[in-house]
Amino acid sequence: MRVSYEWLKTMVDVPEDPQDLVREFVRTGTEVEAVERVGADITRVVTSQVLEKVPHPDSDHMYVCKMDVGKYNVDEKGEPCPLQVVCGAQNFEVGDKTVTALVGATLPGDVKIKKGKLRGVDSFGMNCSSRELGLDADHSGIMILPKDAPVGVDFVEWKGMSDTVIDCEITPNRPDCLSMCGMATEVSAMLDEDTHIELPAIKNESAEFGRTADMVDVTIDDAELCGRYTARVVRNVKIGPSPEWLAKRVIAAGARPINNVVDVTNYVMFLTGQPLHAFDLGKVSERDGKRHIVVRAAHEGEKLVTLDGQERTLTPDMAVITDDDNAPVALAGVMGGLNSDIDDGTVDVLLESAVFDKGHVSRTSRNLDLMSEASIRYERQVDGARCALVSDVAAALFEQCCGADVCEGMVDVYPAPVDAPQMDLRPDRVRALTGAPIETEFMARRLERLGCTVTRGADEHAPMHVIAPTNRPDLTREIDLVEEVLRLWGEGDVEPTLPAAKNHAGGLTVEQQRIRKIGQVLRASGLSETSTYNFADPKDLERLGMSEEGRGVPVKIMRPLVADQSQMRRDMIPGLLRSVAYNLDHGVQNVHLYEVGRVFFGHEHKSQPDEPSYVAGVMCGAWNDDQWNRKYGKLDFFDAKGVVENLLDALRITKVRFKAADPKQYGWLQPGRAAEVLAQGELLGWVGNIHPSSLKNFDLDVPVVAFELSVKALLRLAQRELPYKEVPTLPGVSIDLALVVDEDMTCEQVVQRIQSAGGKLLSDVRLFDVYRDKVRVGEGKKSMAFSLTYRAADHTLTSEEVEKAHNKLVTKVMKSTGGEVRS
């Protein structure tokens, strides 16, 4: 929300220095993203006067002008000389005062003015139109100033365009602060100052111009889509530029002036927080002497060309405003249609002031990738109780700024009136919960500043009865009022105290220690901890290629904030892949992330879902950027396997196995580069390369290796201590063994057979080479070379003992594997 300081001054008393108000915003919980100076993007633009106007020698529509620009009347050598400007406008004469941008000037949109030649004639600046100065949409000619305007002074200062804009980040629970009136109320409560907000009033609303009820009929098909719809007609509108004061405020709020009708609707939205829409009444079809407005759900595949010129394909979960239940004329809460927009030929206006369901507006906005100032406000909830009041304000401004005639009355369809929440606030309870000595008088006065109606108790300890304003949907319980009081009193002023405890020694449980150990090991292995949303897109598992089997039913969110986060996640990998894509898009090529969190498996006949915890990680790129003296290889399956092995070793989990993953069961992993992780016969999780088709669905085109392990299984199998084994003191004997086996035999299978055949003397088996050659090894065969270490615990082995044990091992392994020793 962009808060104009000059505008705010007209509504409430504020500090002289805007930074003082910024500190109060931050203190009371409103984050400030930026503080800007309006007009700062206009430099070296001055008032001027036309001294000479001569037709261009090589053009039939341009003129060579001599401009008086005051102290800037010097040539390139510093000699006094009027400024020469080539101008194509037709609306000025000699003696007119105008606005000139000098060489080196900047204009809105980062436009820079340079010395140039127009058809062979030098031009040392530009005479500006209102549009080029960002004041309004008029570009029919250059801006003509009053005759008494000074010459050669800075245009921004003379025009009074300087203003400070505080750009505030408004949280979703505070829709009231998306308006200047709301921000004035908030500042009033923060500073304990009175507001002096004066809303325009209609001067002449008369049946002489017609009765709205006789001209317009409104039907709401579904009250869930639209809680209230008001319609008012204003006639004989004169389309033109907005008054200067109106254009200034629209600019300060972040919009561009278009014309007086559009600017009035934008201004009223910024003023009150209620989005409005103006239809050209003449473009709405008439039946039985009336225009019939119907609010309904869109039909599947229905089309609408919105004001931005784009054709939109609609779905039934979108609300539309229709012309007599036929063609849509607006996308409810988001944007109007091109078929009923205001243009230069508009005479009569149908003004809409309505409230649409925030969930439907949010989904519509995101599904169509169409966000507007209106949708931002509807998504956070618009106050339905004030629709009629805001319509009156807009009608008064149409009367004032557009010369319009206001027809009598309005059509107001209000199927479910909004009741203001009522609750009791106990002052002693406030003090007990906050731990702050907040006076009862402070509580009552600040709540009244926020717009609450407060009925005070008999004394400072008696409960107060509070009626919250309807534009504060976040105030429904006593604890909400407690939060407001503490926020305004100052959370930073609460004296810190330790919680009371008797005979209780603090410390972490074994489970907490092990969970922290998981994070420590993964960070030490080179991964960074992240936290992704618990909310998920319903299509996440499908995009990943992961089966829903064993993951319960989706836990759906009743009123999701955004369409692509409408259920609780059932796996953590999609969120981590989005984090990888985000980092890659922002230039981070080496990404190593992990997360410890919960997933949610719902059940059809249970009210609560299962919430198992998992630890998951994703890695792509290399461990580090290449250096002049060292190059790093790309991360692969074995890097992720090593991270998992580090984790299992640190938790002292024994009898760990990695078993090749079945591609049918693990469709999201790349066949041949994925494994199940088992320990003591129990499945812990998996590790492997994400399948390229799955990566493509998450906008990734680089290899990503990942793992996911059950925290519950890790904690159950983790041990505090391992059995002590003495360090070998006697030498071992190493022998290499190369076996030729079938291609489909895995290393794990061969090692198991070697260990089984080796007996007590075999202490270690290590694979060090795999060799394939159709001629030397054979078709469908491979050679696997192992280093075997023999050692006895109580004596030094003799060559005869080693030879006997090794020959026995070779015989058994050849028989069990069907292989042969490669010479």
UniProtKB/TrEMBL annotation:
<keyword id="KW-0436">Ligase</keyword>
<dbReference type="GO" id="GO:0004826">
    <property type="term" value="F:phenylalanine-tRNA ligase activity"/>
</dbReference>
<dbReference type="GO" id="GO:0000287">
    <property type="term" value="F:magnesium ion binding"/>
</dbReference>
<dbReference type="InterPro" id="IPR005121">
    <property type="entry name" value="Fdx_antiC-bd"/>
</dbReference>
<keyword id="KW-0820">tRNA-binding</keyword>
<dbReference type="GO" id="GO:0009328">
    <property type="term" value="C:phenylalanine-tRNA ligase complex"/>
</dbReference>
<dbReference type="Pfam" id="PF03483">
    <property type="entry name" value="B3_4"/>
</dbReference>
<feature type="binding site">
    <location>
        <position position="480"/>
    </location>
    <ligand>
        <name>Mg(2+)</name>
    </ligand>
</feature>
<dbReference type="InterPro" id="IPR036690">
    <property type="entry name" value="Fdx_antiC-bd_sf"/>
</dbReference>
<keyword id="KW-0030">Aminoacyl-tRNA synthetase</keyword>
<dbReference type="Pfam" id="PF03147">
    <property type="entry name" value="FDX-ACB"/>
</dbReference>
<dbReference type="GO" id="GO:0005524">
    <property type="term" value="F:ATP binding"/>
</dbReference>
<dbReference type="InterPro" id="IPR002547">
    <property type="entry name" value="tRNA-bd_dom"/>
</dbReference>
<dbReference type="Pfam" id="PF01588">
    <property type="entry name" value="tRNA_bind"/>
</dbReference>
<comment type="subunit">
    <text>Tetramer of two alpha and two beta subunits.</text>
</comment>
<feature type="binding site">
    <location>
        <position position="474"/>
    </location>
    <ligand>
        <name>Mg(2+)</name>
    </ligand>
</feature>
<feature type="binding site">
    <location>
        <position position="483"/>
    </location>
    <ligand>
        <name>Mg(2+)</name>
    </ligand>
</feature>
<dbReference type="InterPro" id="IPR005146">
    <property type="entry name" value="B3/B4_tRNA-bd"/>
</dbReference>
<dbReference type="GO" id="GO:0000049">
    <property type="term" value="F:tRNA binding"/>
</dbReference>
<dbReference type="Pfam" id="PF03484">
    <property type="entry name" value="B5"/>
</dbReference>
<feature type="domain" description="FDX-ACB">
    <location>
        <begin position="728"/>
        <end position="822"/>
    </location>
</feature>
<dbReference type="InterPro" id="IPR045060">
    <property type="entry name" value="Phe-tRNA-ligase_IIc_bsu"/>
</dbReference>
<keyword id="KW-0547">Nucleotide-binding</keyword>
<feature type="domain" description="TRNA-binding">
    <location>
        <begin position="39"/>
        <end position="156"/>
    </location>
</feature>
<dbReference type="InterPro" id="IPR041616">
    <property type="entry name" value="PheRS_beta_core"/>
</dbReference>
<feature type="domain" description="B5">
    <location>
        <begin position="418"/>
        <end position="496"/>
    </location>
</feature>
<keyword id="KW-0648">Protein biosynthesis</keyword>
<keyword id="KW-0067">ATP-binding</keyword>
<dbReference type="InterPro" id="IPR045864">
    <property type="entry name" value="aa-tRNA-synth_II/BPL/LPL"/>
</dbReference>
<dbReference type="GO" id="GO:0006432">
    <property type="term" value="P:phenylalanyl-tRNA aminoacylation"/>
</dbReference>
<dbReference type="InterPro" id="IPR020825">
    <property type="entry name" value="Phe-tRNA_synthase-like_B3/B4"/>
</dbReference>
<dbReference type="InterPro" id="IPR012340">
    <property type="entry name" value="NA-bd_OB-fold"/>
</dbReference>
<protein>
    <recommendedName>
        <fullName>Phenylalanine--tRNA ligase beta subunit</fullName>
        <ecNumber>6.1.1.20</ecNumber>
    </recommendedName>
</protein>
<comment type="similarity">
    <text>Belongs to the phenylalanyl-tRNA synthetase beta subunit family. Type 1 subfamily.</text>
</comment>
<dbReference type="InterPro" id="IPR005147">
    <property type="entry name" value="tRNA_synthase_B5-dom"/>
</dbReference>
<keyword id="KW-0460">Magnesium</keyword>
<keyword id="KW-0479">Metal-binding</keyword>
<keyword id="KW-0694">RNA-binding</keyword>
<dbReference type="InterPro" id="IPR033714">
    <property type="entry name" value="tRNA_bind_bactPheRS"/>
</dbReference>
<dbReference type="InterPro" id="IPR009061">
    <property type="entry name" value="DNA-bd_dom_put_sf"/>
</dbReference>
<feature type="binding site">
    <location>
        <position position="484"/>
    </location>
    <ligand>
        <name>Mg(2+)</name>
    </ligand>
</feature>
<keyword id="KW-0963">Cytoplasm</keyword>
